């Protein structure tokens, strides 16, 4: 009865106070030719698939975190506890510092530890364990001990209605920490290959999973085992006029911008997905800018001390004489991530397009 | 000394048992009266703290002497606020389902915890909420309109549309704005209590948290600070059995959150959270204890989260319907109604007409609130700092120019124009 009463109100509304629609259009991956059979999976299913594969093939592996037992709030560990038991897939108490510290301990003693932090926004209680412990284990012990078998997965970035604490892109806090590897997939196919690479990598990795991609990103994903190389950027579109650099969902914004620029400005953009922020693929970026002379870097995180600044200064060091315009950055603003103002906060395609226009006209 | 006691432990186990009373010769450990024994015993578990209740499941008053002068008006207010909270929850939950607001969290089953505890406080005791405490705000006079404006994030929202729905805050109602990161409010509430102690203002602070949040490192810090620095604070744990999907059995072992009190040197009690009178009484006593002794106290209200965790959750994925139904029988609102009927406090007016008028009021508020524009988008830049620093002025100017040029791509009509 109440349902009806509330529904009847609908006639009175003009604007939409609820969820805003997705801020990008997903560009699916090309189906790979040499990796055997594939299946259509979205990103949470691809991650689930990778985790399943690890649990099946690596008997020492465990998955843990808040609410992972029933599948995790984003369904990435769905049915894994049923399949592999409570000893290998389990809930922890609600304590991020505990999750990471516990994970380090597992890793130090040879267990493949896959920790989930429910939201990247909630990883900060574990900052000490990550920055002072995980990142420095190998170095401080003269390589007697390491926690390379630790991988931290965590959902990040904008979702349309997440406000301050379900939207942040905190990657650059971690890229400032030697000893960690930082990886962000742009879709389902990459997510599976990169996650497998992170889990098997010899160093602790943080795997940011842009949560807007969980359902929106559907690819033909190889059924079998494969890895995507860490530290390697992907050139998604080749072009000669302007280089566009991003990661995660921003890559899809940039692909759309490249189309727009082609259509409206007759400009050929080269689009690079950095994929790995630490270490990052300098050479691919440098080669591209030596060709185009113009570059736009875009990320959702705030501008000041965002990873774009790091890329920009490297470009300036390595490509100074090739640059035909100042390095351009389009980013989130230097404010907390706001709830109702999200459409004004994000580095959307129009802000990026305007920047490309400015680069071209410089 | 220690070697000696060890030696006697080894040598004389069978011959004699001797208690070393240290009072005279040995130093004490942190001023705690110490006993030495030579028969080693592992201590496993401790005594359970019983759960206090005034009303039984059927609404029968269990201890009339505990509550000599039950104030009919107060009881009726309890009922009205619990019921109002439930109606607000039902309607806003539906609003979310229909995409009118982006998110919501209900307090189904926990109405007694919220209203009873709010009533047990003084209205100017400072509240540090978690998020499932809307009833506390309502009790203090925060209006339904104010709730709904916040959920819509319109320009009448005191929080200026910056946070997700249910992140209420009100200075007038001594209620610090909700923050999503769990546990962070606990040590803050201890600091605020210390402030109050220095001010000698006879107020306390109360911090609400779930049994899940109690696992955070911040909870440990807060307990320990409050104990060592002697702060007038109520640690109010809403133990509702679940932290999203994680049952309390996977959250902690031992005698719950109140059971931790003795280890920290903090007084503690447990109360039946589905008995609003019990919660009221317990909170009142806890409040007086905290203020009179400048000491912390833990109140653990045992209850059950009958709704989904939030609108992002489907709890049937991890618990059985029968379990939920079982708790439905313990509903705090029904229990209070039964009590009122038995003791001649029930007024049939409370049922149909009054509930209908509340519903109308809420629905009307939704209609009004929905029409109100969001704050002007430039508000995005305000309140990051006290003043707008140059780099933010620059970013705002850049965005003004951009939006002017690309206005058709921005939802400007939903926002107040500057
Ligand atoms: C630091 C942090 N970690 C994780 C979360 C995600 N989260 C939000 S509510 C919640 C469960 C809280 O349970 P509890 O404290 O028992 O309160 P209840 O929801 O049962 O009222 C979790 C894990 C968060 N908000 N903050």
Automatic annotation (TrEMBL), chain A:
The keyword Mitochondrion applies. Its EC number is 1.2.4.4. It comes from Parthenolecanium corni. It comes from the Eukaryota. SUPFAM superfamilies: Thiamin diphosphate-binding fold (THDP-binding), TK C-terminal domain-like. GO terms for biological process: branched-chain amino acid catabolic process; response to nutrient. Signal peptide: none annotated. Pfam families: Transket_pyr, Transketolase_C. This is 2-oxoisovalerate dehydrogenase subunit beta, mitochondrial. Heterotetramer of 2 alpha/BCKDHA and 2 beta chains/BCKDHB that forms the branched-chain alpha-keto acid decarboxylase (E1) component of the BCKD complex. The branched-chain alpha-ketoacid dehydrogenase is a large complex composed of three major building blocks E1, E2 and E3. It is organized around E2, a 24-meric cubic core composed of DBT, to which are associated 6 to 12 copies of E1, and approximately 6 copies of the dehydrogenase E3, a DLD dimer. InterPro entries: THDP-binding (IPR029061), Transketo_C/PFOR_II (IPR009014), Transketolase-like_Pyr-bd (IPR005475), Transketolase_C (IPR033248). The keyword Mitochondrion applies. Together with BCKDHA forms the heterotetrameric E1 subunit of the mitochondrial branched-chain alpha-ketoacid dehydrogenase (BCKD) complex. The BCKD complex catalyzes the multi-step oxidative decarboxylation of alpha-ketoacids derived from the branched-chain amino-acids valine, leucine and isoleucine producing CO2 and acyl-CoA which is subsequently utilized to produce energy. The E1 subunit catalyzes the first step with the decarboxylation of the alpha-ketoacid forming an enzyme-product intermediate. It is an enzyme of class 1 (oxidoreductase). GO terms for cellular component: mitochondrial matrix. It catalyses: N(6)-[(R)-lipoyl]-L-lysyl-[protein] + 3-methyl-2-oxobutanoate + H(+) = N(6)-[(R)-S(8)-2-methylpropanoyldihydrolipoyl]-L-lysyl-[protein] + CO2. Residues 41-216 form the Transketolase-like pyrimidine-binding domain. Gene3D superfamilies: 3.40.50.920, 3.40.50.970. It is found in: Mitochondrion matrix.
UniProtKB/TrEMBL annotation, chain B:
Its EC number is 1.2.4.4. It is found in: Mitochondrion matrix. InterPro entries: Alpha-ketoacid_DH_E1_comp, DH_E1, THDP-binding. CDD domains: TPP_E1_PDC_ADC_BCADC (cd02000). Keywords: Metal-binding, Mitochondrion, Oxidoreductase, Potassium, Thiamine pyrophosphate, Transit peptide. PANTHER family: 2-OXOISOVALERATE DEHYDROGENASE SUBUNIT ALPHA, MITOCHONDRIAL (PTHR43380). This is 2-oxoisovalerate dehydrogenase subunit alpha. The lineage of its organism: Eukaryota, Metazoa, Ecdysozoa, Arthropoda, Hexapoda.
């Amino acid at each position: 009865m109440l349902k009806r009463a509330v529904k009847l109100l609908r006639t009175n509304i003009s604007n939409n106070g609820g969820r805003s629609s997705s801020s990008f259009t997903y560009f699916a991956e090309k189906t790979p030719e040499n990796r055997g059979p594939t299946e259509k999976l979205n990103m949470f299913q691809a991650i689930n698939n990778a985790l399943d594969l690890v649990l099946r093939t690596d008997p020492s592996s465990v998955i843990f975190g808040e609410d992972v037992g029933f599948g995790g709030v984003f369904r990435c560990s769905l049915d894994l506890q049923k399949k592999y038991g409570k000893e290998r897939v389990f809930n922890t108490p609600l304590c991020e510092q505990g999750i990471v510290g516990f994970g380090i301990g597992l890793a130090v003693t040879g267990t493949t530890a896959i920790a989930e932090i429910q939201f990247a926004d909630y990883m900060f209680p574990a900052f000490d364990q990550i920055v002072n412990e995980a990142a420095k284990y190998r170095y401080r012990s003269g390589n007697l001990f390491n926690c390379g078998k630790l991988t931290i997965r965590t959902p990040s970035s904008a979702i349309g209605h997440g406000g301050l604490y379900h939207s942040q892109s905190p990657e650059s806090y971690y890229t400032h920490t030697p000893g960690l590897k930082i990886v962000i997939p742009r879709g389902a196919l990459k997510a599976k290959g990169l996650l497998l690479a992170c889990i098997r990598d010899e160093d602790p990795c943080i795997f940011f999973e842009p949560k807007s991609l969980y359902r929106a990103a559907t690819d033909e994903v190889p059924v079998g085992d494969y890895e995507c190389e860490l530290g390697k950027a992907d050139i998604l579109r080749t072009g000669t006029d302007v280089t566009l650099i991003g990661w995660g969902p921003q890559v899809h914004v940039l692909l759309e911008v490249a189309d727009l620029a082609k259509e409206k400005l007759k400009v050929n953009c080269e689009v690079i997905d950095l994929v790995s922020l630490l270490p990052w693929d300098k050479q691919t970026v440098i080669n591209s800018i030596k060709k185009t002379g113009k570059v736009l870097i875009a990320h959702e995180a705030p501008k000041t001390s965002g990873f774009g600044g790091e890329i920009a200064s490297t470009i300036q060091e390595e490509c100074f004489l090739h640059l035909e315009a100042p390095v351009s950055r389009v980013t989130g603003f230097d404010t907390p991530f706001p709830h109702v103002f999200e459409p004004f906060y994000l580095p959307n395609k129009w802000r990026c397009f305007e920047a490309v226009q400015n680069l071209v006209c410089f | 000394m220690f070697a000696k006691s060890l030696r006697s432990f080894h040598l004389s186990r069978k011959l004699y048992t001797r208690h070393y009373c240290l009072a005279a010769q040995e130093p004490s450990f942190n001023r705690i009266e110490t006993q030495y024994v030579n028969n080693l015993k592992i201590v496993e578990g401790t005594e359970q703290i019983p759960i206090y209740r005034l009303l039984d499941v059927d609404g029968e008053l269990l201890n009339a002497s505990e509550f000599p002068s039950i104030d009919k008006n107060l009881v009726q207010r309890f009922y009205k606020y619990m019921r109002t909270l439930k109606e607000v929850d039902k309607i806003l939950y539906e609003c979310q389902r229909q995409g009118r607001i982006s998110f919501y969290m209900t307090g189904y089953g926990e109405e007694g915890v919220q209203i009873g505890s709010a009533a047990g406080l003084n209205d100017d005791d400072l509240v540090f909420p978690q998020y499932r405490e809307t009833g506390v705000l309502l009790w203090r006079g925060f209006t339904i309109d104010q709730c709904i404006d916040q959920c819509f994030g319109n320009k009448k929202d005191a929080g200026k549309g910056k946070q997700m729905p249910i992140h209420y805050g009100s200075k007038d109602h001594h209620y610090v704005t909700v923050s999503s990161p769990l546990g962070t409010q606990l040590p803050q509430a201890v600091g605020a209590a210390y402030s109050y102690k220095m001010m000698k203002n006879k107020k306390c602070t109360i911090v609400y948290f779930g049994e899940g949040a109690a696992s955070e490192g911040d909870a440990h810090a807060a307990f320990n600070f409050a104990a060592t620095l002697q702060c007038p604070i109520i640690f109010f744990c809403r133990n509702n059995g679940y932290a999203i999907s994680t049952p309390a059995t996977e959250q902690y072992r031992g005698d719950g959150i109140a059971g931790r009190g003795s280890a920290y040197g903090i007084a503690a009690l447990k109360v039946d959270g589905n008995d609003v009178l019990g919660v009221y009484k317990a909170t009142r006593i806890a409040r007086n204890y905290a203020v009179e002794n400048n000491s912390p106290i833990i109140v653990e209200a045992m209850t059950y989260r009958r709704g989904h965790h939030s609108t992002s959750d489907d709890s049937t994925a991890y618990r059985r319907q029968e379990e939920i139904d079982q708790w439905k029988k313990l509903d705090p609102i029904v229990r209070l109604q039964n009590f009122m009927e038995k003791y001649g406090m029930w007024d049939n007016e409370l049922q149909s007409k009054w509930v209908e008028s509340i519903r109308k009021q809420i629905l009307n508020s939704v209609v009004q609130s929905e029409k109100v524009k969001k704050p002007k988008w430039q508000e995005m830049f305000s309140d990051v700092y006290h003043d707008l620093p140059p780099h933010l002025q620059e970013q705002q100017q850049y965005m003004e120019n951009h939006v002017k040029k690309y206005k058709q791509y921005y939802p400007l009509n939903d926002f107040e124009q500057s």
